[in-house]
Protein 1
Amino acid sequence: MKQGYQDQQSRLIRLTEEYLKEIGVHRPILEITLQSKLERDLGIDSLGRVELFHRIEEEFKGHLPEKFLGEIECLEDILRILAEQKIIASQNRPSNKIKKIINRKEHHFDSDTLIGNLRKYALDHPDRPHIYLLNEHGEELVITYGALYEDSQKVARGLISKGLKRGQTVAIMLPTSEDFFPAFLGIQLAGGIPVPIYPPFRASKIEEYIKREAKILSNAEVQFLITFEQTKGISKILQSFIPSLKGVFTVDSLKKKTSPYSNNHVLSSDPAMIQYTSGSTGDPKGVLLTHGNIIANLKSAQEVISLKPSDVIVSWLPLYHDMGLIGSWLGSLYFGAPLVLMSPLTFLNRPDRWLWAIHVYRGTLSAAPNFAYELCLKKIKDEDIAGLDLSCWRLALNGAESVQASTLDRFYKRFKSCGLKQETLYPVYGLAESTVALTFPPLGHKPKIDIIDREIFEKQGKAMPSKKNSGVTRIVSCGKPIPHHSVKIVDEKGRELPERKVGTLWFKGPSSMQEYYHNPVATKNISHNSWLDSGDLAYKVDDEIYPVARKKDVIIKAGHNLYPQDIEAATELVSGVRKGCSCAFGVSNPEQGTERLVIVAETNSKEKFERDRIVQNITARISDVLGFPPDEVLLTNPGTIPKTSSGKLQRSACKAAYLRNELKRARIPLWIQIVKLSVFSFLLKLGKGAKESMKAIYTLYVFCVLLIIVGPFIISIACVSNNLAPKLGKLWSKIILLLCGMFYRVRGHQYLTKCHPTIFVANHASYIDAIVLTAVLPAGTIMIAKEELLHFAPLKWLLTKLGHVSIHRQEFKQSVRDYHKIEDILKFGHSVLIFAEGTFTFAQGIRPFKMGAFQLSVDKKVALCPVSLKGTRQVLRDESYFLTPHMIEIYAHPPIIPTTKGWRAALKLKNIVRQIIGESSGEPLLRH
């Protein structure tokens, strides 16, 4: 009995999902709809279609006539043809009226993307409040789903009119304001990738800010910067530091554009954002996350905490920080829970307003780092909370930095009279590399605290329980891995450790980042097959995770592993030391063969006598805790210790500043910093202008060379036979490169021979790739070029004379014939060159490979030689009109001769070759 239309739809989607996973495209099934375009949306090329259609025919026990294959653009076309051929039942196919309803329900398939969810709420509930944005006076601005979607579309139109292309990055430098939300979502709607960075809020550190953000934005290769009016001066200075930056705009200026706009089809596998981690000062580490990563994290977290639309989320966390951006805002957007949001500055000045917002709006979920709970204890007076009711607060998530047991104890004792329940306190563990959340405790339990022997812990790295009143350390449990995620504790060799043994925490799951953007070395350093290294030390008890410290922050002194947060917590108990403003680190001492323990603490005290007293008290307290005194205690002025945008200590940065003797220096006045930056910016612009002038001169020189030799080149090619033309073309290519100063070197020259037919597969980075490879590959190697090149008659003549072949990249039926055309070329003993990526873009990286070359290789058992190009992108990059002199390197690798046939053999060969080319070209493997 033939099955109904909806069942057939499900079978087709499931089959397509299985096929995509097999070829290495991991896409959740919910992202695939009947309207998904095979090539544009699902990345299925011509040969991939052939394989998919074979599987569809087997699944539905029918035949797809060849005459229809060229008409198929999406999965719905396949169902239509199957129905027309009587392969599936058509009587159950819905009418147009019913189909509209089904498509509207299918809109939920898009809810595995952030954009899909915004669209869904905006269409179904346009007037429903999404965000209650509070200003410093407590006045609210209500942002509805409909208004947010409309403004986001306007921003998208503006960006597209400015030239933003799909996959390009856009930085957002905005405070917590109504502009941030349409800026972030508008970038996604336009097909771009948002890069949130924190705006300048310390005038005293403006020089440090600009230098740091310039490194980040240069690494991200941002095309545009969205900011606010007051920072335009700073933005202009920043622009001179970033070569890729084309424009600086406000949200209002972008919304004024009225260019036509059609919704981009966003997939779960598409990049959703780049989140730069806290330690991005010297070596920027931008965590690239897809929509699928974010949604997977939100869904897994929801399974534990049971977040519902009836919940109310209250937050003051910065929107450029993962806990504020993803955990609070995007979580509320995905699950439809209202968000009450205030500025971080409001909280820092008046932390009681955070608690009153929970009271007034009956907030049920709110998250903050440990220091925020400490700030409430320190700054909130009893009269500030008279009448406060926190009984509605279901979960007070505490994460993003080390959770202190003493903080949990004192916060509960202070606010239990306000209705706060002990089980509301909810220690969690997460990191940007796992989107945001990784381990959560079960609901309905008070925090679990492990009391362990400090000496054994420091000397042996074992967390042994202790019932003593002294000499103990208290470590807080952060629960178990969220569903569908895994965690393990390993030693230095990656071997899993037993319970209560301290080691490095590794993790994996659908929330794991794609890569550190444009930083393959850093990505490789933390990757261990499917596991990622968190860089954190922890131990397990009953499968619950007890985070200890960042591995790089551990201080090794006299045989003890000292954990800085314990030392800092003890330091801050001393009167006169600012809460959350002390930093402990180790400094190498080769003479003693151990590390010196240095403590830096901020204080408001100015008097020498008072400061001496504070140093003595810190020394005495640390001696009591550790059994020995610190080697140095340094008191500094408020605001000296480096912190992240979310308020976390940057111990490595503080240590570096200490070693440079910067902590003792007087703060440089703002006007001097501005002058220094302006001078530096002017010099950069001067240098950039000189550099651009040199490029222009070089480009003009190359143009003149080509103008002079084009005549002799064309005449000589025209005068020789078709057999000699390829050899002459190879000679001319060498001459052109030499005269143009495009020097190159070849490694693995012995593999570039014409002993037998070979398929040369290369990456594609620039327009000059073809001429470079013509110069080094065996004469007579036939290049497989895209058909669009033949639209220019002289070029068509030249390519034909040299024996090169064109293929149709878009027209399906012709592409299959082209496959057989290349097959015939190999049969006649010729080698071919195929650019497996198909095209190139401005962005660095190896794009996904097409299957054609690899299917040919395994079908005909023809040797396939990987060839890597390095440096051609620098000579002439996409979107650039000027040439830049740069050394070009060509790496030829040993040919691979397939021993087995079939689709899986071709797929395996493709993955091996792509890995080889990626490593030798020095560019990351892109997933889109």
Note: The first helix runs from residue 5 to 22.
Protein 2
Amino acid sequence: MAFGIGLNEAQAQNRVEVTGTVIDATDGEPLPGATIIVQGSSEATGSTIGTTSLMDGTYSINVPENLNVLVVSFIGYITQEVEINGRTTVDIELEPDIRQLADVVVVGYGTQEEREITSAVASVDEERFNQGNVNDSAQLLQGKVAGLNVTNRGGNPNAGSTIRLRGLSTVGANTEPLIVIDGVIGADLANVDPSDIQSVDVLKDGSAAAIYGTRGSSGVILVTTKKGNYDTGDPEGNIRLDYNGYVSAAMVENQQPVMSATEYIEAGGNDLGSVTDWQDLVTRTGVSNVHNIAVSGGTGNTIYRVSTNFRDVNGVLEQSGFRQINARANITHNALDDRLTLTLNASTTRRDIDNSFEEALRYAVLYNPTAPVRFDNGEFFQAILFDNFNPVAIYEQNVNEGQRKAINYNVQAQFDPIENLSINANIARQFNSQSFGEFYPSTSFFRGLNRNGLARRYFEDRDFTLFETYASYNDTFIDRLDATITGGYSFQETFQEGLTIEMGNLPTNVQSYYGIDLSGDRVLGNPANVFLDSYATPDERIIAFFGRLNVTYDNGIFFNASFRREGSTKLGPENQWGSFPAFSIGTDISRFFDIDAITQMKIRLGYGVTGALPGPNGLAQDLYTYSFAGGGTVSKARDANPDLKWEEKTEINLGVDFGLFEDRLTGALDVYTRDIDDFILEIAVPTDQFPSGTQFQNAGRLRTYGLEFQVNYDAYQSQNVFWNTGIVFDTYSTELEEFIIDEQMRANLGSPGQNATNMIRVAVGEQIGQIWGPVFSGEVNPDGTPVFVDLNGDGQLITDQGNALSENGDFKQLGKGFPDFTLGWTNQVNYKNWELNAFFRGAFGHSLVNTYRAFYEPIDPGAINSYNRVITDKAVEGLTVSQFSSLYVEKADFVKLDNVTLAYNFDVSSIEAFRRIRAYVTLENAFTITNYTGIDPEPVLQDRGSTDNGGRISPFADVLSAGIDRRNNYFTARTLTFGLNIGF
């Protein structure tokens, strides 16, 4: 491929053709795609004269007679300047740049070359991140790492992603991986803008994560932010300016299928004289814009990068979104002849949040389609019905907003007093605060009317301190044996406090929730309607001592071992300290035989133990309550358990990393088993020994088997075209081996009318995630009730959900909430200056309970005046009674084009002011192929319960109850993004 701009005929005639071959200096292999540029051609001719080498490494270029130097470059090799000196044949040998070829992977407390990794570790750099309207940094990784599941079901901009690594690791707290940002353990991922992330390394198995002890049981995600580097600065102190920005438009991908006004009237619904599309009214095209400006540069001893990010994000639900400003700075200074390196990282984030009300989406589905939005006098129309509210009035009358702030900094020092010895220290502080306010005026039927106005305030502050220091020494101890020894100390301390206030009976609506002090509930003394909760944790401390040994023998056999001894104030005095060992070994067996097609075949085996701490404090201690009744009494609410200890996970991982055909085909295969023991759960205990009747104990065990596969293939290479394709695949199965109850039903369907319907069965010795219920026969009784199948053949039907676990009940597993396997397929195509990236994703084998259908599909003549009806091709004629069964459990397999990006890189070689200009367009959720009739077939990995119109839904998710598609889910969006990246 030759390139040039503005060449005239006279210039072209005064040239000499130069040909040759570009090869690897180490093995003599040709290098296709190397860039050859005539130095000074831009100034001499007004354009850059250049070409690229062909598949056999050959090239041909016309060089002006007055120019004499070729600049030859290739990724992973040292750029050369070659003098022509009158020659017409110039062969070029490029030396590998060892610093670039030795891919470095961030691991706990240090880095390793990729070839030395013996654990299950995956790395994703900026080039492989998901593109488009990404407001949650976790979404950069969705579908990119085998075994890592990142979902933001529905796409609510104010809801964080659910992250699972290799499935479920506990039934308590810490179900998501530990986040480490620039060495700061437990850092807030929301405080780093996606535009500022350089790369992410994922420690998947226990042998890699054990160095983090109790914090690493659910895996570890190591985030490295962008830094300045010495290439961005020079002795004159030049700087670089980068701008990244985009505008996106989010549109509702699917609406719930409901009756039109005409269909509703024909089905017997009450005609109120209007035609209203409520789902259309409460949704919108959410236009967002994001801007990131970064300045980087430096001099010989100091480099820096400072960035500012602004996000104005709007969701598809009216009045939902946020405005955020984030600033981040990194400064690195070298001193003492480069033996001392000091690094400062600092960032701050402020996010102003409009939560709106997801209930507006729910009631837009079921509200009467013939009802007007307002009466003629301008007041909102409102039917006096149970669980039935004007959807537009919900978000226009009421207020639900908040603010989050975060500040964090860390100072790192690395001192190399002698050769091969490095001493490191890291001190960090992180401050998080959030405040939220809700207000429901006395005119609002939704939560306000019955309380004569209702106001809520919520405040929370968190202060985190980290100090860590460690030293590493590496040397060649005997012939062909290299070793690195690391040892260190870690101190972590957290303090958290919060306050919640709820009161009603407000004399005015003018002051919104700021007038909560005027509440009549407080002034007149109505304690039943006053909710007040305040808390402060003790100073939670974790102290740890850790060490690691990395050994390389003959540059082909690798061994790693680590040990962490850790103590926590959250546990009983008898069990505050725990030990977490790990080891792994690997070898590249391709070194022992000579097969041209195989460039790498590394086998890995790892074993590691990690722990998990409880979420709340004081679970090992006595808990007392106080009552003012009878002159004041104190009673024990929970008994202490001084023997309470860690949850513990033991994991074994066997893996293979391979590279074939000169690494055109690379990949990894991992199989693993993990045992999670000693869940921390509150259980009932005998009152003759424990007066309160309740105590936290270690009770429970999970076992998971899994397999992961990842492969990348450079499928096509030519002068102008490059195509890389990659697949990630993972599957796992989790069995509950021990639990406090042998068998139980969980996850209530909710009101109206199905409050006693639990849908998820959990049983010892069986897989978790079972959707459990009666089987619909396909027939309907004359009274409109469903006919179920007599599963046990005893001649009687016992299908009431309250008897779901009875021996003679007619129930079975109707599906499961966790998929059998997930799949991601990435395609990257480059053609000249064009880039095309298409990412497909799918999940298979899971089911979902379609709760909209379970409530609103049967056409009940008595209730049709109250609620609109969902209509699907699964509806059964004549069915008028809603009762949970297999009818509403649907297979939810899907394949979707998750993200497709088309980009163009402008040639700016002749424009001195610019380093790069890249424009792109991205379409997210382009299409979905599925038979699921609901809005979104994505797996639901946890359950927060049915909608509570009191508004206080539990913040704790039930991770054992998967597969329920609730009625309070945000609508999924399809998003079109236009972006621009400019480098000055």
Note: The mean pLDDT is 88.
